[in-house]
């Protein structure tokens, strides 16, 4: 896993240089938004269950997916989907705190599309659920932190598509 600080320092180090102005601007932005990131993570962890429940209500409930024959039909598969959504939320929050998406590649996206395809989990509906989660999270953490979280939800969605 990388974070905004190590990735900027590493890229200067391989060139044997001090951080240039562009890197310093990025670092300053990261430090400047540190308090916002910490507050957003606190709000998300306090509301994680609500966020997941509202995401399901907004994007999946009462669709073909939850009806007999759908991929979320039966309690076991419904619970697996809710659990996956909670993984997405938790790892997007880690990535937002780190200011870097690499943890999503390592822990979430690596092999996920292949797993979903082999189990018949619909990718399009999963991506729509991630978009719904982005909106729900935005309404809980506010616009500035919501935009930052949005970067990592979009990263998951595009990594799956
Ligand atoms: C921490 C990283 C991590 C991830 C991301 C993860 C995902 C993951 N989701 C799975 C299953 C699943 N995932 C879903 C999800 C859905 N079905 C739908 O129709 C919805 C659109 C969607 C929810 C948004 C379902 C229903 C299953 C069970 C499929 C089955 O066994 O038939 C499986 C197969 C094994 C299992 O059932 O537990 C994995 C590995 N596991 C991990 O350890």
Automatic annotation (TrEMBL):
Gene3D superfamilies: Phycocyanins
Annotated (2R,3E)-phycocyanobilin binding sites: 71, 76, 81
Pfam families: Phycobilisome (PF00502)
CDD domains: APC_beta
Bilayer topology: Peripheral membrane protein
Modified residues (N4-methylasparagine): 71
Superkingdom classification of source: Bacteria
Annotated GO CC locations: phycobilisome; plasma membrane-derived thylakoid membrane
Keyword Protease found: no
UniProt-listed SUPFAM superfamilies: Globin-like (SSF46458)
GO BP field: photosynthesis
Keywords carried by this UniProt record: Antenna complex, Bile pigment, Chromophore, Electron transport, Membrane, Methylation, Photosynthesis, Phycobilisome, Thylakoid, Transport
Location in the cell: Cellular thylakoid membrane
Keyword Electron transport listed: yes
Protein family per UniProt: Belongs to the phycobiliprotein family.
PANTHER family, alphabetized: ALLOPHYCOCYANIN BETA CHAIN, PHYCOBILISOME 32.1 KDA LINKER POLYPEPTIDE, PHYCOCYANIN-ASSOCIATED, ROD 2-RELATED
Protein name per UniProt: Allophycocyanin beta chain
